[in-house]
């Protein structure tokens, strides 16, 4: 009995520390996720070249990840496990581009579209439309991996689509939009964020396919995607309008010191998502997203003096209910099917 008590003593404080750390990560992530659209609109001037923003954000992510010793630890762990030599012996350019290159290119394009959408949508509408990536992730994981959804999850996805349609019709119309140019909101705000959601769902499914089916090392995939994503963005500047603008005006055209704030916040958010998901699971992440939507609505009203539109007020409970139901009722394989 005494030995049992001695064993329980050290584990309880460590579990309490972990729960406190997860709570802290969740709060910071909710604040970052909710504030990101507002600080991006406030601190990034419209003249800033989109590619420079995305590329700098990717570099910032790599620096923060290296600072957190994630990539370095990945290489060390692989070397200790004896898998480093095996990985490089089996490594081929085609397999690497299929497993990591394609998702990296898709994510780079997605981030560029999100930067465009930030500038042309109000923060709450953007945040809610951005959640449609849940639907497209479910769609592509079923197409590529045949990963099924529960009936509750299917119902939640339909709620999400209803909210997206409602917001698209409402915010894209002259009556529902507070802007004098509803076409700009539709084609430079709503369309980019919806296309970015499609790309996000496809990239997520491809990463899951590479990890589960191709058995591609997750550590190696992290390194490959960091390299390929940056190279893709650099190569796109050779003939793109953004590349011409960079050559004409310079890389940091229209930047201010405050421009670094949303870049670093976005990079930090990427790391926090990984920490929350790995330590607390997808359910906690779902609650963080719901909390972030509330944060966005409150901050938008406080700092921009802009209350949510009628369409946002109707769509908001649909999005919150959809996320909550989807995370709470995952698909479970029946015993007779096992």
Automatic annotation (TrEMBL):
PANTHER family linked: NUCLEOTIDE-SUGAR TRANSMEMBRANE TRANSPORTER
Source organism phylogeny: Eukaryota, Viridiplantae, Streptophyta, Embryophyta, Tracheophyta
Protein name per Swiss-Prot or TrEMBL: CMP-sialic acid transporter 5
Keywords assigned: Membrane, Transmembrane, Transmembrane helix
Localization per Swiss-Prot or TrEMBL: Membrane
Membrane topology label: Multi-pass membrane protein
Gene source species: Xanthoceras sorbifolium
Keyword Metal-binding: no
Membrane-crossing segments per the record: 21-39, 59-79, 91-109, 129-145, 154-173, 185-207, 219-238, 250-274, 286-302, 308-326
InterPro entries reported for this sequence: EmrE-like, Nuc_sug_transpt
């Amino acid at each position: 009995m005494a030995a049992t008590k001695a064993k329980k003593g050290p584990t309880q404080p460590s579990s309490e520390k972990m729960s406190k750390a997860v709570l802290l990560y969740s709060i910071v992530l909710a604040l970052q996720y909710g504030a990101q659209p507002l600080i991006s609109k406030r601190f990034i001037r419209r003249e800033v070249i989109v590619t420079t923003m995305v590329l700098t954000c990717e570099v910032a992510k790599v620096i923060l990840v290296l600072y957190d010793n994630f990539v370095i630890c990945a290489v060390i762990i692989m070397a200790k496990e004896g898998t480093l030599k095996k990985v490089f012996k089996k490594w081929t350019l085609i397999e690497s581009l299929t497993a990591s290159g394609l998702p990296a290119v898709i994510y780079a394009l997605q981030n560029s579209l999100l930067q465009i959408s930030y500038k042309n949508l109000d923060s709450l509408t953007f945040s809610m439309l951005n959640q449609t990536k849940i639907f497209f992730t479910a769609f592509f994981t079923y197409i590529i991996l045949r990963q099924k959804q529960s009936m509750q999850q299917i119902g939640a996805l339909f709620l999400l689509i209803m909210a997206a349609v409602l917001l698209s019709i409402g915010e894209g119309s002259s009556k529902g939009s507070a802007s004098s140019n509803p076409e700009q909101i539709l084609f430079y705000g709503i369309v980019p964020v919806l296309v970015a959601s499609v790309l996000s769902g496809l990239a997520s499914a491809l990463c899951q396919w590479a990890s589960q089916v191709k058995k591609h090392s997750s550590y190696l995939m992290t390194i490959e995607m960091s390299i390929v994503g940056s190279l893709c963005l650099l190569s796109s500047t050779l003939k793109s309008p953004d590349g011409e603008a960079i050559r004409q005006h310079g890389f940091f055209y229209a930047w201010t010191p405050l421009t670094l704030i949303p870049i670093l916040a976005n990079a930090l958010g990427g790391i926090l998502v990984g920490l929350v998901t790995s330590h607390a699971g997808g359910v906690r992440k779902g609650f963080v997203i719901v909390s972030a939507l509330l944060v966005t609505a409150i901050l938008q009203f406080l700092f921009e003096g802009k209350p949510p539109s009628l369409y946002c007020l109707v769509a908001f409970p649909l999005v919150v209910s959809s996320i909550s139901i989807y995370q709470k009722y995952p698909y479970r394989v029946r015993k007779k099917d096992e």
